[in-house]
Design goal:
The chain is about 40% helix and about 15% strand.
């Protein structure tokens, strides 16, 4: 897991990682932090777009869907480089925007 503050630091420092938003399109349009949109139901069909050789940080609204996605990818495809944004966009709004 990663906190909103730690993720903001990575973004500001232009660190090399992939940020993936597993929320639905309407949620992403309402508010997002620049991650690649890949709704939860499409993740497995987009497996070729998820690298195994660098950090991949997933987020959703509360951190639940992204946690489920990470668990599935680890179990089915052996990923070891996946990180969940703790608390999702709710935590981001609370910690970064307020």
């Amino acid at each position: 897991m990663i906190t909103a503050g730690a993720l903001q630091h990575k973004i500001q420092n232009s660190e090399d990682f992939l940020l993936i938003d597993v929320r639905e399109e309407f949620e992403n349009e309402h508010f997002n932090i620049g991650g690649k949109l890949m709704p939860m139901g499409t993740v497995l069909s987009n497996i070729n777009n998820i690298p195994k050789d660098k950090e991949v940080i997933f987020y959703c609204e509360k951190g639940i869907r992204s946690s489920i996605v990470i668990q599935r990818l680890q179990e089915k495809f052996g990923y070891t480089n996946l990180i969940n944004l703790s608390g999702g966009m709710q935590a981001w709004r609370r910690e970064i925007l307020e």
